[in-house]
Amino acid sequence: EVVYSLSEILRYNLTRSGELVTLKEELRNVENYLQLMKIRFGERLNYRIEIDDRLMEVELPYFTLQPLVENAIMHGLEPKQGNGYVLISGRTLDDGIELVVEDNGLGMPAEIVKNFPNCLDAIVKKDSLGLINVHSRLQLCFGADFGLRIVQEKGKTQVKVLLPGEKTSGSLLQLSHY
Fold first, then answer.
1. Element spanning 25, H or E
2. How many CA atoms lie within 13 A of 81 on its CB side?
3. What share of the chain is helix, strand, coil (3-state, %, to 5)?
């Protein structure tokens, strides 16, 4: 199981770099990552993916969700005493699609939550460059109305991925090689 999950992650990372992928493909990679983390953390880590099948063909930049899940585990759950969870959910909004990575870990510094994405110094200190990377790639691909939003409430942190509602096409790799 470990070898299979790891080989699938490596295959995904080597063959999909720079492309738009379906949510189904991205979630398969995230699930492989979560299975490895489940082996590492055992009962301390629980996870659930709750996304309607109708969203599975939505396209997003490759490697959008895994860094957010990794961030939730490494910065939120790993230093926390006791068990934790990661919930990945998705829904259709009037003006697009919202994917959410939620955890019940230690939370993020208030400065990052309040000022994201204009808080590069705080993010560098917290070693959370994945957030800025994902946010920047989403905006490059879809425009300034899309990207990440962070919501923190007592006992949980949500990183929301805002995507356009209509099916997209193309590839980041093609966009970067004129």
1. helix 23-41
2. 0
3. 45, 25, 25
Lowest mean pLDDT among 67-71, 109-113, 157-161: 109-113
pLDDT in tens, 113-137: 888 877 766 666 666 678 888 999 9
CA distance 159 to 27: 16
- Burial-class residue 116 by CB neighbours within 10 Å (0-12, 13-18, 19+): buried
Which CATH architecture group holds 2-167? 2-Layer Sandwich (3.30)
**Residue 107 near residue 152, CB atoms below 8 Å:** yes
Domains of the chain by residue range = 2-167
The pTM (predicted TM-score) of the whole model is: 0.86
User: What sign for the dihedral angle of Cα 131, 35, 101, 140?
Assistant: positive
DSSP-assigned letter for residue 92: E
Q: How many helices (H) and strands (E) does the chain have?
A: 7, 7
